[in-house]
Automatic annotation (TrEMBL):
Keyword Transmembrane on entry: yes
Protein name as catalogued: SbsA Ig-like domain-containing protein
Transmembrane segments: 28-47
Record SUPFAM superfamilies: DPP6 N-terminal domain-like (SSF82171)
Keywords: Membrane, Transmembrane, Transmembrane helix
Length: 483
């Protein structure tokens, strides 16, 4: 038998060499199994999670100017109903809620504070398809507010000319008196719009002119007036590009005689001409007062017979009567509730639905010891600020105090830094957070302006009504909140 090795020997395949043909399939199956388990785990985890916040939206600028702003929270799932009791806001403010599919609307009752960080937390939020709940949270910070004031300057320069009066702009968080946005030899008053400033200026003979200044630059616009005369009660509707005022002809002026005749000037009107606001039957009207309804083009006018009317100068200009009242006292902050005064009562007229409400105000702690003066309503719940003059022993004139009162409490919110200084006027900010108080120093001299006379050295102090602090003041008077 031939036992010699073959010329072409075949070596037996080692065991390890045969395995690679089977392992790739096994590894693939294992990987697929792992992925399936992961996907199943993620799906189970996702199904067991409550809704999550996808986005949040709020108009921050409007939140400190208009009542009842809203925060829109959008979740990643359709939401079950959410009660207002599930929502916590810091700083605290009452809210209401509505749900539409994935959107939760949180509506704040009232108006928000300037320069404030708000945290909104919604607990036990459930979807319409799952049992799991979660907590949604969102933070936002409200904006600062511009502060304008008029500074009159009776000094003369080296050439003997009077130094110009100026309107300055700063902010609540700013320092000093801010930047000059308008200057003229004699400024009677001004009104602020979103991107413009309107100012009444006086010539040497005390006749009035009306200028509009753009904050973006460019030439000032001289608004046509009926002739030589006086302009009073300049007011504005900032978001609607409207100003209104009353014009009176100067003695001896030729042509038609105007007697506190109301006009409206529309900055967007191509004609560039003011429009007269007429009375019943299109007859000329004499007004005691006028004011724009907040954030609207509608004007409230009070004629010389004490009758109040609503009129839309951009519409049909028809008059809607509001009854007779002794005086207008502005609007409740954050609302369209007009405050009106009569000899025996104070009331509000809701210009949304026309409802009237007689106010039963709680007594102030100063009622029995000081003489009451101007009253400003701070809320529809009857909170108010009032100026009092109280007799003193050390000085000849009474001391000025402003008390804030509501149904539960009454306290002094402001007294001038010097007992010899006195309060000339005050008003409330559009969101009801601050009082702006004009004070006159003891040694002040009158400036002799024929309309809205003022005094040298006047300052405006800003009082935070909720915190009881007054750590911000600016030189000048007529803060734009009081316009």
């Amino acid at each position: 038998m031939n036992r010699e090795p073959s010329a072409y020997p075949v070596a037996p395949a080692p065991e390890a060499a045969a395995r690679p043909a089977r392992w790739p399939g096994r590894r693939f199956l294992v990987a697929i199994a792992v992925l399936v388990l992961l996907v199943a785990g993620l799906a189970a985890a996702n199904f067991s999670q409550g809704p999550r916040l996808a986005s949040a939206e709020i108009n921050l600028g409007a939140s400190v100017l208009r009542g009842n702003p809203r925060l829109l929270l959008t979740a990643n799932q359709a939401l079950a109903e959410v009660a207002a009791s599930q929502v916590t806001v810091s700083p605290a403010i009452e809210v209401s809620t509505t749900v539409t599919d994935r959107e939760l609307t949180v509506r704040f009752v009232g108006i928000l504070r300037y320069n404030t960080r708000y945290t909104v937390t919604v607990t036990d939020v459930a979807s319409t398809t799952r049992d799991a709940t979660s907590t949604l949270e969102h933070e936002f910070t409200t904006p600062d507010s511009d502060i304008y004031a008029l500074q009159r300057d009776s000094r003369v320069d080296d050439a003997g000319a009077k130094r110009p009066d100026t309107v300055r702009r700063t902010t609540l968080q700013g320092r000093g008196d801010g930047d000059i946005v308008f200057g003229a030899p004699r400024i009677q008053q001004y009104a602020v719009l979103e991107n413009h400033l309107a100012a009444v200026t006086l010539a040497d003979d005390d006749t009035a002119g009306l200028e509009v200044v753009s904050f973006a630059g460019g030439a000032n616009v001289q608004v046509p007036v009926p002739g030589a005369g006086a302009i009073e009660n300049l007011v504005s509707s900032p978001s609607k590009y409207l100003i209104a005022y009353a014009f009176t002809s100067a003695p001896g002026a030729e042509g038609r005689r105007y007697d506190r005749t109301p006009f409206v000037y529309d900055l967007t009107e191509h004609s560039g001409l003011p429009a007269e606001v007429t009375g019943v039957g299109g007859l000329p009207m004499t007004v005691m007062d006028l004011a724009f309804v907040p954030d609207s083009a509608t004007l409230v006018v009070q004629n010389d017979g004490q009758s109040l009317f609503l009129v839309d100068p951009r519409g049909d200009a028809e008059l809607t009567p509001l009854g007779e009242h002794a005086a207008m006292r502005g609007f409740v902050p954050g609302t369209r509730a007009l405050v009106v005064a009569d000899p025996d009562q104070l009331s509000t007229i809701d210009l949304v639905d026309g409802a009237g409400t007689t106010l039963d105000l709680a007594p102030s702690l100063l009622d029995g010891s000081a003489d009451p003066g101007k009253l400003v309503l701070l809320s529809e719940q009857g909170r108010y600020a009032r100026l009092f003059l109280q007799g003193t022993v050390d000085i000849d004139q009474p001391a000025s105090l402003i008390a804030v009162t509501d149904a539960d409490d009454s306290g002094v919110a402001f007294t001038p830094a010097s007992e010899s200084s006195r309060v000339r006027d005050f008003c409330v900010s559009p969101n009801g957070q601050y009082l702006a108080v004009e004070t006159i120093p003891a040694a002040a001299l009158g400036d002799g302006y024929p309309t809205l006379p003022a005094f040298s050295g006047m300052t405006t102090t800003l009082i935070d009504l909720d915190r009881g602090t007054s750590n911000r003041s600016v030189s000048g008077f007529l803060p734009h909140w009081c316009g």
